[in-house]
Amino acid sequence: MATLCFFRFWLGFGIGGDYPLSATIMSEYTNKKTRGAFIAAVFAMQGFGILSGGIVAIIVSAAFKARYPAPTYEMDAVGSTVPEADYVWRIILMFGAIPALLTFYWRMKMPETARYTALVAKNAKQAAADMSKVLQVDLEAEQEKVEQKKGADYGLFSPQFLRRHGLHLLGTTTTWFFLDIAFYSQNLFQKDIFTAIGWIPNAKTMNALEELYRIARAQTLIALCSTVPGYWFTVALIDKLGRFTIQLMGFFFMTVFIFASAIPYHHWTLPDNRIGFVVMYSLTFFFSNFGPNATTFVVPAEIFPARLRSTCHGISAASGKAGAIVGAFGFLYAADYIGVKKTLIMLGVVNILGLLFTFLVPEPKGKSLEELSGEAEDQNGTETESRIASV
Fold this sequence. Notes:
With 391 residues, this protein is mainly α. It is 72% helix and 0% strand. The protein has helices spanning 2-15, 18-28, 35-67, 85-95, 97-109, 114-120, 124-135, 143-148, 159-188, 190-196, 208-241, 243-262, 265-268, 274-289, 292-298, 306-357, 369-373. Helix 2 (18-28) packs antiparallel against helix 3 (35-67) and helix 12 (243-262) runs parallel beside helix 16 (306-357). It is globular. It starts with a helix and ends in an 18-residue tail after the last helix.
């Protein structure tokens, strides 16, 4: 247990810290016309990770299930979990180290973003050199223009920051918080919902390896049919529809489909209607990813000043993880005390709150990062553009 807690700590400290870094790096190396698609594509790779994790779990559990048959839990509670099952979760968990090792080298070789180097570190020559290397174009340093350019030199939570970006930060933190309450509660407890509607058998009628295999198969099917397509719909349309529209639409349809699943819940539990429930439930995942699960990652990397961009994104992401904790534990206890139907209705209300707080978030589509953050204003308040800001 202590080892797992230590692992989770470093996972959050390391991989979790990459949330703001990945989004910020991509936002500062892309142009305003395609910026949303590139940032969303970074996040969309999470979908392939979810899919790959499910496939690994299916393969490993199927192999062990065939090699080590066991009775069901109701026949033999102790014997239903064979000793070799202890290796299964370890193997699945260790597979997660492979992509981390593959990306470690390239992450170490990545330079600081040119916007930070130029506008915050005030080193135009290094910024031009880094940008030339990454984009494979020739850029000349314009140190004088960068030194004359007024940057966002105010601190986090200073009066000037709160005046300019206070509502924006409130919007990005609250929408990510409400989104993750609904998103993670649905993800973590899919098995309980699928068992409740009879899509997978009751746990006591299976052994441990059979249960893992069936849960992994069901979750992988949901990921393949709704989660992954939702991510890439966002990538394809975010720079056409805009972040605000997609986020608002996503929260709206998540609310609609959760209520449509929850209010006639007993209707969906009937044997002839269970597939219909799975379809409705899957659509909530589709519109969470073709919606706020993607846009809450994209927007904080665009609307804040260069020196505070990653910090504000990290604060927003941390708020989301707080929502994930509420969703994970809250759904578990709520489902036990008030039932799945009322719990799903509560999640629908949470989505409505996310929809309302979306109105605090500006639309970044078609604007440069300097326009969005206010860094394009010089001492007299007029618009200026540096070579780096124009990219």
